[in-house]
Amino acid sequence: MTLESRDRWVRAAQGWEARAEQMARDTMPVSARLVELVRPQPGHTILDLAAGLGDTGFLAAELIQPGGTLITSDFAPEMLTAAQKRAPQNVDVRFKQIDLSTPIDIQAASIDGVLCRWGYMLLDDPEFALRETRRVLKQDAAVALAAWSGPDDNLWSAAPVRILQRRGILEPTPPGPGQFTWADPNVIEDTMATAGFLEPKVEAVNFVMRYEDVDDWWVAQTQMSTRTGDADAQLDFATRSDVLAELEEAAQPFTQPDDRLEIPARTWIATATA
Ligand SMILES: C[S@@+](CC[C@H](N)C(=O)[O-])C[C@H]1O[C@@H](n2cnc3c(N)ncnc32)[C@H](O)[C@@H]1O
Predict the structure, then answer these.
(1) Which residue range or ranges hold the Methyltransferase type domain (predicted)?
(2) What residue owns the CA closest to ligand 1's atom 13?
(3) CA 245 to centroid of ligand 1, rounded, Å
(4) Which of 19, 122, 125, when mutated, tests ligand 1's pocket best, judged by the most ligand atoms within 8 Å of its CB?
């Protein structure tokens, strides 16, 4: 599972890099809230897990100067290479390959705050990863994580998949970990508590995903999801036209007078202390 999953994320890295500016801009409210919750201070060591292109941790990097260190981690080396290109200058950022399905190779009780945006719910055993997170955190230090709420709250991602699934181009979503596995916030709280975290709290953050037009929306999904990208690569011209026509219909409620799209997004943000 990890190998298949890593292969997918390795392949996705290029697409994520292509969409980096849009993602960083649109998801800024989420990063900002996560960073606020770990309360970074000068001299702190902050760990960003499943960091992708690293933007959430990079937001904390300046706040821990002077003397602080940011550790940006992911299990896909290609994500880390892309993140390196986006790292702020003049701050101490270390890049480390960490696979959250294995023990974290960091000393116990050495980290002042952990960030993980849209990572844990993708794991086969998120409780194990949270236990490891707790082990590396200093006592009373915080983890702040993001996990998507349900597909109906996130049509920017769910609508294209549904169109492909209705047409039999994509398989129905397989059981097991995925984007919406933690749509129920009770699951997040329970998993954090079972992993030993104290007083987990969950809140919602609503924000907006913005696309130039329907084509841009489609391209974004094919770039950032290998499943959608692989499906798109197999479409003949006529089928792709039909899919885009359906997407255009789905886009109507979100289409602005200048054709740009503003599609609502919603995530849970959870925090707890070690
Ligand atoms: C949805 S992306 C989120 C990336 C980034 N945190 C963000 O919010 O933009 C999920 C990230 O988790 C990473 N990932 C998936 N499974 C992982 C694992 N077992 N260990 C570490 N990273 C993993 C992927 O490589 C990918 O970069």
Answers:
(1) 50-143
(2) 50
(3) 32
(4) 122
Q: In whole angstroms, what is the distance from residue 76 CA to residue 126 CA?
A: 18
Write out pLDDT tens, residues 90-133.
Answer: 899 999 999 999 999 999 999 999 999 999 999 999 999 999 99
Please answer whether residues 133 and 108 qualify as being in contact, where contact means their C-beta atoms are separated by less than 8 angstroms: no
Tokens of 156: 């920017």
Identify the residues whose C-beta falls under 6 Å from ligand 1. 2, 5, 9, 50-53, 56, 74-76, 79, 98-101, 117-119, 122-123
Element (H, E) at 11: helix 2-18
**Cβ atoms of 113 and 40 closer than 8 Å:** yes
Gap from CA of 50 to ligand 1 centroid (Å): 4
Sign of CA dihedral 118, 121, 123, 128: positive
Task: Tell me which CATH code domain 2-151+176-209+266-273 carries.
Answer: 3.40.50.150
pLDDT, tens only, 237-272: 999 999 999 999 999 999 999 999 999 999 999 999
Domain boundaries, the chain: 2-151+176-209+266-273
pLDDT tens-digit map of 7-60: 999 999 999 999 999 999 999 999 999 999 999 999 999 999 999 999 999 999
State which ligand 1 atom lies nearest to the alpha carbon of 116: 6
Please report the atom of ligand 1 found closest to the CA of residue 9.
25
* Cα-to-centroid distance, 171 and ligand 1 (Å): 22
